[in-house]
Amino acid sequence: MAFSTIALAISDHVATLTLNRPDRLNAFTEAMHEDLRGAIREVKAGGVRTLLLTGAGRGFCAGQDLTDRAGNTAGADAGSSLERNYNPLIKSLRELEMPVIAAVNGVAAGAGASLALACDLVLAARSAYFLQAFCHIGLVPDAGGTYFLPRMVGQARAMGLALLGDRLPAEDAERWGLIWKCVDDDKLAAEAGALAKKLAGGPTKGLALIKQAIRAGVQNSLDDQLALEARLQSVANKTEDFREGVTAFVQKRPAQFKGR
Ligand code: T3D
Does residue 56 contact residue 22 with C-beta atoms inside 8 Å? Predict the structure, then answer.
């Protein structure tokens, strides 16, 4: 499928999805949402074992394209825009049965920050920053922002970020536990690519179950979580990759996982 606002490259079981409106810091438009839906369909169609999201140019994503909203009095309703575009996007990313990595190459603002936080592992360039831009334009953090932030950094920091809308530099984001890792700008693409390749060569059915368990653990009781772990382990136990992992261990050789 041809895309006008993003690029999708699939190689060695890794899909690299690049938001590609660099002159607008990769802000979301209707066309971009349409492209993203198509890209995620391709990613789900088979063969892909890790998704890597990044941005073209100096930004990762500046959230909703505000030129589409300028002078809006009775036009586009922000709530229906969320229901139509953003909420399905965030859910479809979260539901992908593979690791999803964000390589945040520059500013991640508004729904662009939420997009990054919806990913399983976030790497950010040292010069990148996260910005809850919503309070500057009279909106509420969305696309999952109010779900992710307090869970990841606690209420006090989530509240400060959302009410003040100050830039959170990548190094602080790492220190606060908002992201996995901050890396030098010139190393971001290589490190993210290596991480994606490593995960794509892993037991990806099992990795998908790990995602499910870790997410559920944030809100489950211990009893519920122990029961969930037992259920998921029964599923993992039936994968070819589990058999291969154990066989490879016993034979003292590297495992050759197939994602099955
Ligand atoms: O209605 C709904 O659908 C509801 C959903 C809402 C979701 C949201 O995401 S709401 C939040 C929207 N985003 C923002 O409020 C962020 C707006 N952008 C900024 O505050 C700044 O651009 C940044 C802090 C992100 C970066 O600043 P800086 O100084 O590095 O760059 P810049 O010069 O401001 O931006 C570069 C260009 O990108 C510039 O265009 P120009 O002057 O070169 O022609 C700028 O206008 C454009 N740009 C940046 N962000 C957006 C944008 N154009 C449209 N929409 C943007 N969000």
Answer: yes
Q: How far apart (Å, rounded) are the C-alpha atoms in residues 96 and 83?
A: 19
pLDDT tens sequence across 184-195: 999 999 999 999
The 8-class DSSP code of residue 134 comes to G
The pLDDT of residue 75: 56
pLDDT band, very low/low/confident/very high, at 73 (cuts 50, 70, 90): low
Q: How many whole angstroms from 38 Cα to the centroid of ligand 1?
A: 24
Encoded tokens for 148: 């992710």
The residue nearest atom 9 of ligand 1, judged by CA position, is: 63
**Any atom of ligand 1 within 6 Å of the Cβ of 62:** yes
Helices (H), 106-221: 111-117, 145-153, 155-164, 170-175, 188-200, 204-217
Contact 256 CB / ligand 1 (< 6 Å): no
- Give the model confidence (pLDDT) of 197-235 as tens digits: 999 999 999 999 999 999 999 999 999 999 999 999 999
Q: Coil, helix or strand for 151?
A: helix
Phi-psi region of 155 (alpha: psi -120 to 50; beta: other; left: phi over 0): alpha
State the distance from the centre of ligand 1 to the C-alpha of 133, rounded, in angstroms.
Answer: 9
What residues contact residue 129 under an 8 Å CB cut-off, 6+ apart? 107, 108, 167, 168, 169, 170, 173
pTM for this predicted structure: 0.97
pLDDT digits (tens, 9 = 90+) for 10-37: 999 999 999 999 999 999 999 999 999 9
21 in contact with ligand 1, CB cutoff 6 A: no
**Do residues 148 and 114 touch, judged by C-beta distance below 8 A?**
yes
